[in-house]
Amino acid sequence: MAGLAGVSQATVSLVLSARGDGRAAAISEETRQRVLDAARSLGYVPDPAARRLAAASNNLLGVFSFTATFPTDVQHSYYPFLVGVEQEAAARGYDLVLFTGSSTGGAGAAGPDALSRVRLADGCLFLGRHVPRAELKRLVADGFPVVHLGRREELEGVAWVGADYVSASREVVAHLAELGHRRIVLVREDDDAPASTDRQRGFLDGLAAAGLTGGPGAVLRCADPAGELTAQRVRALVADGVTAFVAEETDTGAAWRALNAAVREAGLGCPGDVSLGLLGSPPADLAARPVPTGFDIPRHRLGAAAVRLLAALVAGEEAEEPLVACEFRAGETAGPPVPPR
Amino acid sequence: MAGLAGVSQATVSLVLSARGDGRAAAISEETRQRVLDAARSLGYVPDPAARRLAAASNNLLGVFSFTATFPTDVQHSYYPFLVGVEQEAAARGYDLVLFTGSSTGGAGAAGPDALSRVRLADGCLFLGRHVPRAELKRLVADGFPVVHLGRREELEGVAWVGADYVSASREVVAHLAELGHRRIVLVREDDDAPASTDRQRGFLDGLAAAGLTGGPGAVLRCADPAGELTAQRVRALVADGVTAFVAEETDTGAAWRALNAAVREAGLGCPGDVSLGLLGSPPADLAARPVPTGFDIPRHRLGAAAVRLLAALVAGEEAEEPLVACEFRAGETAGPPVPPR
DNA sequence: TTGTAAGCGTTATCAA
DNA sequence: TTGATAACGCTTACAA
């Protein structure tokens, strides 16, 4: 190549990497053209591998998930996040490396060095619930840029991006309070995932902000929502003055399902007799009608925010705000309170 | 790294690249362990770019799409393919590089060298309709392993994997013939996409195999199905002895929609009065009921097959059968023929 | 069984 | 404005 154009390899490099940049100043137009022509006629393209070797960064952002990145079941997949991840990565000129099969028994599933593979990229995004803390912290300790998608305050030093469940839950309660509800009950499952805790906090904050009292019965915490949340129980609560219920969103949608079933079984209409709220998005099979009042987790934006943060870390910049706001969804399951019949 | 283990760089390379292979014979178990331990403690991972440059492989398979890889609309996305791609890649120990933003204005959207980025990987999978032929053939000519997902016979030399529409369509016709239908009409759009042509061929093959005659009217080819395929037309055909219709699947589902609309408008029930078949999967909004008799394109398996083929090419092996069988779907829109009322 | 050394195709740093 | 030349981190003969 350099031969055909009659110049040195270095000159070729100069010409070809100057493309786009305005600073073509260092090369004479004639040489430039000669090189460009030769390149075209040879179909020459700089080898990206060599390029990256020499330039020490490879324009690659990793995505590592502790479960299959593309599970067969679209509902429980990371797909929505990836949409945002890809868009933002593309916008910033990064390509994505999907580290496959963490759980699928794939590429490097085996050893504890499975995680080391990610060092191939300039930085890596992590998704999933079950994180191998040690390995992750190791990466961080080595100065490798790491971002976790989902709140991870327990893992000190690990940067993360998460949805602001607190504010979103508070907003839903505020909406109900504004409609006139005075007694609202939260139905949640009995685990202590950050996502659950956050929602409860937001719920209680919202109550307080509206001048309402949480009281002992305001949070219905049940190991098995379907078992505890009976029609009878609902009827009793309503008789006692409760006019609205909110359920937390979980993987399975169990709380929301149980709540709906119990209300229906109690012979109560919604929002005719009671108002319902869902702190999150409905499971796919219940997505149709009626649209639950609640909020949506902006998965696209979360993915994008994660990439932004990661890109910042890679560039050695400061981390930004890790919380992404959720979107309030008016829905059709909440109306003014109605006194019990 | 080599220092910590007290061995030469070459030994490190030997140890690390022998992994998986049974031929660890050339290295003493002790040295091997020492290197492995050192690597683990340092979190060392061979630089893929360097690896590739040094003429080996880097365990990376590329995925390049000519539209955004992750369109917001899941329905029209490559998601189903990616499920298979990821699974198969994981199973074979490959990681995936998503070359982003071909159309999104991303990473390398610009020049004609956008495609050259894929050379970083050991081989690359291409998805999408609008292929830059020249660039692709260039890659192939350079001996870079390339597989296109979807039939691409026009691009000589480019390996591809596609669905076997011919056999699948033939099977649907055979099913109808077995039910007793003697006059079947194919409704197709008026373009010459390979997918359309294949279906028609399968349709005619199926007719012939069942001892039925295609005849001039067996294929209803209309530029605008909605315009041509009127209720009147359907009624006339039925009066003339036609007892079953099959429509091809297209992006928009236009043919199938038009067929359904016309039949309904003609006051005919299905499968009571006429049987219907769909050569493909129904559009999402019509997916519910009734399930159309027809076939499903096994997108998972297509993705997996593409990876298998690509892996074979990367390994310098022979290409395998590029056609993936579709799955017959009994559905609920076909029954025994009924004489016109 | 392990070490030495020659590339691989760029980029970057100096000189010229 | 251009040309040598030294990295870059690895693989792979070939030598020890």
UniProtKB/TrEMBL annotation, chains A, B:
Keyword annotations for this protein, in alphabetical order, are: DNA-binding, Repressor, Transcription, Transcription regulation
SUPFAM superfamilies in UniProt: lambda repressor-like DNA-binding domains, Periplasmic binding protein-like I
The HTH lacI-type domain sits at 1-55
GO molecular-function term, one example from the UniProt record? DNA binding
UniProt keyword Repressor present = yes
Name the species this protein comes from: Streptomyces endocoffeicus
Q: Which InterPro entries match?
A: HTH_LacI, LacI/GalR-like_sensor, Lambda_DNA-bd_dom_sf, Peripla_BP_I
Matching Pfam families: LacI, Peripla_BP_3
Protein name (Swiss-Prot/TrEMBL)? LacI family DNA-binding transcriptional regulator
Task: Classify the source by domain of life.
Answer: Bacteria
